[in-house]
Each structure stands twice: as C-alpha cells, then as structure tokens.
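Review form for a predicted model. The reviewer records the input and the model, then writes brief findings.
Reviewer: anonymous (R2)
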Amino acid sequence: MKAFLIDVTKCVGCHACQIGCKDEHCDNDWAPYAAPQPEVGQFWLKVNQYERGGNSHVRVAYIPTLCNHCENAPCMKAAKNGAVYRREDGLVLIDPVKAKGQKKIVEACPYHVVYWNEELQIPQKCTGCAHLLDGNHPISVPRCVDNCHVDVITFGEEADLDLEGTEVLHPEWGTKPRVFYKGLPKKFIAGTVYDPVAEEVVIGAAVTVSGEAGTYAAVTNDWGDFTVDGLPEADWTVTIEKDGKQTSFSVSTKEKDQGLPDIALA
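Model under review:
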C-alpha cells in the first residue's frame, strides 16, 4: 500500500511542492483520475505556515498538507454511486464524472483538503498523481515529491518507508491516514533572563518547568536565553534560580507556545 512520509524538520517553506502540484494539475485534464484544477482557490498540496511564540522568541513551522488517503475515509462514506473509491495501491480518488453535484463529499472531509469546483460542479483533491504512477512517464512519483529539493516528502510502499516515531494528523478522528509526519512541532516555552540591578543577562540560570504533565529542565545560555521544547499541552510552573536568587510564575501551553517577555531574576 502506498503512503506519504513528510519530514517537517527539513521543510524550509520554499513552496516548491505546492508550485509543482499546481503546475501538474492546472489546465491539465488527467481523466479518468481528475478534471483540471482551477488556477485559484484550490491547493491539492498546501504548505501551511504557523507562527509560534512571541516577543523575541518566535518560530515558524511549515507543514505540507494534502489528502490523507485515509483507510477509513469519510469522503467515501459520504459519496454516492462509488464516486469516491480506493485503488489497490491505497490511493483514494474522486471520479470526476460520478461525483458531479456531490458537494457532501467536500463537507465530509475533516481535514478540509477536498475542494469544490464551482464551474464544473465537482469535488476535487490530491490524486497522488495517479496518472504519473500508471503511465509511461519519466516521473514515476507525485510531482510534489519530484519538486522537493530538500527531501521533505517521500512516497512509496508503506513497508519500505521509515515510519519509526512518525505521527498522523488528528489520530483521534479515527480516519487512519496514509500520510505520516516526522517532527510535527510540539509546544515550547522560551524566554530571556536578566539581572535588573546589574543590567546584564543571567548566564547559567537553572530553569525548571513542572506540572501534572511532567518536569522539564533547561539552563540559560550566553545570551540569557532558554528554551524548553517538546512540551505537552498543559499548565506549568516555571522556576528560575541562580546564586540564591529565584523567580517563579505560571504559564500555559494549552492554547499556544509561549515566547515570554524578558524575565527579571531579582
């Protein structure tokens, strides 16, 4: 069974995969796999950008997203007359003829990666470039894979992919996606510690982040900065100590990453 593997840690946000997808499918009719993709309004593969943190501690995460070709695909259940089907290799496709007028196929996708073509009155999405896989083409992988110059996206037999430590998007939905991710960002707490009397940053301060979800530790670097990464979504108490000085405060990663304002160690 075919699957995608996306290593988020390698993605630089160049959008080459997204551009390659548009180039392959806009104004190109790959019947019976798909009708042409509109030039605007649809991204069968989209690089989503997330700004995280705040103040002087900001990160940007890039996460390529596409149809998950789910084993338990909600779009298949919503479709009539076999308009959405799964191939023997695991790719889930929408028949552009049978699916005409079936907008419920779009509404059924919890990942919002199925689009409605208003002009053709059909739902559309990633096909895994099935036309390239089945035809006698020099490119025998999806265009997003071929266009990626930093090896973020891999496609192949699931058994041949290194899936150790990978995750899928929203496993709690029970859709059993066939797009696997490495390095999906976890929550972080970061800050800069300074001495308001000496008017200098504090180097080597011990930072402890503790709560019901566990205890994590860090040490401020030569710029007084610390980052505690890979945190669960939870409430925390942050304690900072050095040379008998201590400060403590509460912070939460339930809603967002925490890039804190400068912290005085008095």
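Findings: The first strand starts at residue 2 and ends at 7.
Further findings: The mean pLDDT is 96.
Recommendation: see findings above.
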